[in-house]
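Researcher: Next entry in the queue.
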Amino acid sequence: MHNALKDAARPLDSNEREVLRQLFFHGPTWDGDVVSKVGRDGLVDRGLAVRREGWQMLSEAGFVATVEAGYGDQKEAWDARRRTHQ
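Model: Structure for this entry, 86 residues:
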């Protein structure tokens, strides 16, 4: 499978990476809470995120690309830290 995060023709910019991380770590996010609408729009254009009724979330391709890029390990560590501080 082609890894969209490593697309040499147009790598993700910092806004897109930040929104990708937000959607992966926090799940569907209300439009007013997304960290970058420009980044969100870039991810939607690439097919890595979708928008529905004011919410944005990773698409299946976005989820796969994020896990392949190593965000899964970061999220696991983040979740473990959150569980120990509750």
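Model: Helices lie at 14-26, 37-46, 60-68, 71-84.
Researcher: Noted, moving on.
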